[in-house]
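Suppose you are handed only these lines of text.
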Amino acid sequence: MSPSVLVTGAAGQIGTELVRVLRKKYGTEGVTATDKVVRPGSGPGTIVPLDVTDRASVERAFREHAIDTVYHLAAVLSALGEENPDLAWDVNMKGLKNVLDSSAATGVRRLFWPSSIGVFGPDAPKMLAPQDAPLNPTTMYGVTKVAGELLCRYYSLKHDLDVRSLRYPGLISSEAKPGGGTTDYAVEIFYSALKSRAYTCFLRQDTALPMMYMPDALRATVQLMEADRSSVKLHGGYNLSAMSFTPAELSSEIQKRIPGFSVAYAPDQRQKIADSWPMSIDDSAARRDWGWKPEYDLPSMAADMLARLGSRLQTQKDV
Ligand code: NAD
Ligand code: AKB
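From them, the structure of the protein bound to 2-amino-3-ketobutyric acid can be written out as follows.
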């Protein structure tokens, strides 16, 4: 029997694409997409309003739609979280606890909640940060992700709730723009390359960070959620990796395909966040436990992004 799914934060970068994937698998009726902000004409189709900081509304939505599987994506990302730490705490922590409590109260069986490379701080190894590296983040976003991982683990031990989680790297997508993150430059740069042949990057040219193309992230998410329960050993957050690159390396990959594209560098407050994160992470636990393997590297991601975004920009005026 198909699960009855609810997605929070469905109008965001991941939600826009994940809802489409889930609706293809389980049917439109089987997937209730929700978000606080419902912008007409954007997102993955029908979205119903739901503010995750409102516990009663969350529990009501789970009951109304007889939900058994939740993808809880609503959050405030790293850069916005440093500008507004109270909002980050409220949405990321209160929102997650409301979703966990409502899940336990209504009999939700399985919950996906994304963690992030933001769990790591300056004391984690810079190269191939391991699954069990020290988690001492220096951003409010990272604090909420570490506390969130612990909370997810606690609820999976205390209740019969099967919580699954991935520490996503920075995600690159041709479909929906990111909002409020430190890795957003790696998406913005493609829009600028195609629209104006020039980009000013808010990170230094030598800032290496772990990144992933959205099709790989969607595949990992579905693969983890469909894995046999006995193979999922971690309920806090699996390290997940595909590629690592610097702004200079990404720029030169784009320049191979768009000669004349120029990049300037004007690092801002996001540089400090990027400097606190590892350059690459070790995802051998995900590979071992449920068979994770990425498909895209830097050249294949850049080629696909330019092709897909290029054709969207030609056909849709408001992109
Ligand atoms: P996003 O910022 O694009 O989308 C988040 C969505 O949450 C937005 O549509 C926003 O309207 C919604 N939202 C905010 N406050 C809300 C509230 N109170 N109630 C309901 N909805 C609310 O983020 P994303 O990139 O889609 O990220 C989704 C999840 O994945 C987050 O937990 C994020 O931390 C995690 N993640 C993302 C990345 C990435 O590179 N995109 C990397 C690592 C982890
Ligand atoms: C951000 O930059 O905040 C996100 C993330 C890596 O969690 N993209």
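What can we learn from it? The mean pLDDT is 96. Residues 127 and 280 are 5 Å apart (CA to CA).
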